[in-house]
Design goal:
The chain has helices spanning about 80-95, 95-105, and strands at about 15-20, 25-30, 45-55, 65-75. The chain is of the alpha+beta class and about 120 residues long.
């Protein structure tokens, strides 16, 4: 996934990607469509978790093919809900505490008030 492949011109979107040995994590923020002209922007937050699966192809050269299979996805309507749940969700898939902390630090970039 690339940020330029998604989104609508003039609307804010933010992507954070994190790769571990067994999983790929994509955390996104998309601006909601404003219904009124002067309405403040609000966002939707998405979590996508893919597991890496290798399958041996039964051909003459017996090569492996890697698939990314989605194993979790969820939408949140506020950053607070997203932030309150992400550590528990990531803790299910990341055993290494250093990797977990690194992923949580990256997820803070989706906060609309982030100035890092």
């Amino acid at each position: 996934m690339r940020a330029k492949d998604f989104g609508v011109k003039g609307m804010d979107q933010q992507f954070v990607e994190f790769y571990s040995k067994d999983h790929n994590f994509i955390l996104t923020r998309f601006e909601r469509i404003r219904l009124k002209e002067g309405e403040e922007p609000s966002y939707l937050y998405f979590i996508y978790i893919f597991t890496k699966k290798r399958v041996m192809k039964d051909t003459e050269d017996h090569y492996q093919v890697r698939y990314n299979l989605i194993c979790f996805n969820k939408v949140y309507h506020s950053y607070e809900d997203f932030a309150n749940n992400i550590d528990m969700i990531m803790g299910e898939y990341l055993v290494d505490k250093k990797e977990l902390q690194k992923c949580l630090n990256l997820s803070r970039k989706l906060d609309p008030n982030y100035y890092g």
